[in-house]
Amino acid sequence: MATVSQPYEPLVAETSWASGTSAWECLLAIRHEIAGEPLAVWETSDLSFAGIGAVRRIEASGPARFAEARNRLDAAFSGFEPRSAHDRVLAVGGFALESDGRRGWPGFPDLSFVVPERILLEANGGTQSIHWKGPAAPPSHAGTAPSPSSSESWDREAWIDAVRRTLARIEEGALLKAVLARSRTVPLGPGQSALSVYASLREAYPTCYRFLIEDGRGNAFLGASPERLVHGLRAGLATEAVAGTQRCGPGDDTEALADALLHSIKDRAEHELVVRHLIDALNPICSGLESIGPEVMRLPGLLHLRTRLTGGTQGAHVLDLISRLHPTPAVAGSPQGEALDWIAGIEGGSRGWYSGGIGWVGDSGCGDFAVGIRSIAIRGNQARVFAGAGIVEGSDPELEWNETELKMQGMLDAIARA
């Protein structure tokens, strides 16, 4: 079922410019004025903006959620009448790994987008403020999910057992790969908020895809993802495979570890599963599909294999591209259906938006989405951090635990610094 706010009269944009300041700086300057309003922040090397409030809201669930959301967004965008080429209309939001009706924590729907009432958009060396006049959209229908029953989704012993069971399924030939995820819940301290934790994340991970979605009622999902799901443009697309990981700590020989990762049979095989999925999904609709990689991506404490892909799409809508690509073997496994069934059974609870997608859709069908990893869910004064690991033939349960610990630690450090 999908919902959308009631039709509005055509809305008109008002613009002003803040010379030499970023959208983030503008947002901080007015943060006390917008307390309690829905908030969305998106920052990449291609586009940065902050969205405040909501004049349209789209929610969808079920196997056709992306197609339904596209139709609803197209209808919503038709009510906007920009006065100039500078006025942008976009929706920002995210979606869960699967549309299974099991609401994650916090209680965001399987798919949810809002058209912000006000957009602080970086452009031409400054920030453009676009204000869409109209009544606010009604609140989300998702409600609030219950708090987790424990601070740890899996302890070490349970995790190792789950990995061994997964390896047994791989040995039987039922799976090639399954991505297992775990989470940990920690309290936020006095003065800490989704905005302050996000500020800490953006400082620690300046080259990642940074995002914050806050519903205005104490629920937020934020992160600094190293992986783009897809960037859909009028003429083409860009996507990437990020899979295969190597720890890299202080004092380590980074170049030697990077070379070992590039030549690791296990990691290259895991990486190739994702690359092949992207190629197979895009070949029917792409012209001139090209790949560059694998290369080594360097992040604090971790190295990843990455392959970039680009191709022509003749104006394909970004949500149509997502419906083909998501979920990739980097967050689910392979074969896709078998891996998702295995994850649902062995993990038990819902991941919410972790390992789903976060991003924006424009009124022309363009958009940009990151994979919802290296992320934090906040509800009130509690924060839930997530980490996952791809289990393939040759995986070591102890090493996979250590990998998830390291990934979680980056998010926990960001919370501690907030």
Summarize the structure in short.
This protein is α+β, with helices and mostly antiparallel strands.
Sheet with most strands: strand arrangement: 2-9-8-4-3-11-12-20-21-10-17
Q: Which CATH C-level class of the largest domain is it?
A: Alpha Beta
Second CATH tier, the architecture of the largest domain: 4-Layer Sandwich
CATH superfamily of the largest domain: Anthranilate synthase
- What percent of the residues sit in helical stretches (DSSP H or I)? 25-40%
**Total E-strand runs:** 21
Helix-strand makeup class = alpha+beta
Mean pLDDT: 89
Q: Rounded to an integer, what's the Rg over CA atoms?
A: 21 Å
The end-to-end span amounts to: 38 Å
Strand content: 25-35%
> Structurally, how many domains make up the residues?
2
Can you tell me the CATH topology of the largest domain?
Anthranilate synthase
Principal-axes shape call: globular
What does this entry look like structurally?
28% of the residues lie in helices and 34% in strands. The strands form 2 sheets. An 11-stranded antiparallel β-sheet has the order 2-9-8-4-3-11-12-20-21-10-17. A 10-stranded antiparallel β-sheet has the order 1-5-7-6-18-19-13-14-16-15. It folds into 2 domains: 3-132, no CATH class; 156-208 and 227-417, Anthranilate synthase, CATH 3.60.120.10. The chain is globular, with a radius of gyration of 21 Å. The chain is built from 9 helices and 21 strands. It is an alpha+beta fold. Helix 2 runs antiparallel to helix 7 (318-325), helix 3 crosses helix 9 (397-417) and helix 4 crosses helix 9. Strand 13 and strand 14 (236-247) form a beta hairpin. The longest helix has 21 residues, at 397-417.
